[in-house]
Amino acid sequence: MMEQGSLRLRHVGKQYQVKGRTLDVLHDINLDVEPGSFISLVGASGCGKSTLLRLIVGLDAAFRGRILLDGEPIQGTSLRRGIVFQDHRLLPWLTLSENIGLSLENMNWPRQRKQDAVHRHIELVGLAGFEQAYPYQLSGGMAQRAAIARGLVSEPEILLLDEPLGALDALTRIRLQDELLRIWQARRVTMILVTHDVEEAVYLSDRVLVMQPHPGRITQEIALDLPRPRDRASPRFTEIRQRILRDMGAVPALAA
């Protein structure tokens, strides 16, 4: 029996029609994501990273190939797959607890189980004491932690993260990276992160996948064997970061 959180993509492609022309957005994506792993997708804007997340979460069914979760084809959205966006998308008229609880409205759980899950996940992201706060009373970092709690509260097998820290200031972003790592280590839910920040990808991930555009495709896969917690200033960390930047074309290749 396949372990929960196992994701397989086979020959996945996606096209858009733009002014009468067919535009290849994704081409022949093949990917295996092991249960409980943390992978990152990096690449220039327009390489299809966020489009790929939309397909995995089930927001777009018009694609070629197969996407399998635990051996079953993905069909539409499901609470088995949570997602966190760059914008926290908290509803301003609801409290923190109510915003997180929205994810459980369609769950066939007893009321007490839902309340316990909301409370447990508020504690998990370090927001105990802010249960009755409204979004305007939360800092940007706190709002993103609330969004992560909302993505996890339904106990998904996979959490998809689409630039969740991209709008934060540098110091808050570093702090939230440590929070995200702590949450992943506590829950061991499969996580797939889209980010433009290569250092963030190296700091958090088991594997980093480099994508190139026109059409969007995976061109490199880097397995990270660095022990955690990772030292951003270590020579090995810097070496891997520079290698990924070269693979992305962000810095020139070294002369032979």
Keywords:
alpha/beta; 6-stranded mixed β-sheet
Q: How much beta, percentage-wise?
A: 25-35%
- Cα gyration radius (Å): 19 Å
**Ranges with pLDDT <50 over ≥5 residues?**
none
Q: Based on the coordinates given, report the CATH architecture of the domain at 7-86 and 157-248.
A: 3-Layer(aba) Sandwich
What sort of overall outline do the alpha carbons produce when their principal axes are compared?
globular
Instruction: Give the strand line-up of the largest sheet.
Output: 6-7-8-3-9-10
Instruction: Decide which structural class fits the backbone.
Output: alpha/beta
CATH class of the domain at 7-86 and 157-248: Alpha Beta
The major sheet is characterized as: 6 strands, mixed
- Overall residue-averaged pLDDT value: 92
How many separate helices? Answer: 7
Assign the CATH topology of the domain at 7-86 and 157-248: Rossmann fold
Measured between the Cα atoms of the first and last residue, the distance is 49 Å
The number of E-state strands comes to 10
What do we call the CATH homologous superfamily of the domain at 7-86 and 157-248? Answer: P-loop containing nucleotide triphosphate hydrolases
Helix/strand order: EEEHEEEHHHEHEHEEH
Helicity range of the residues? 25-40%
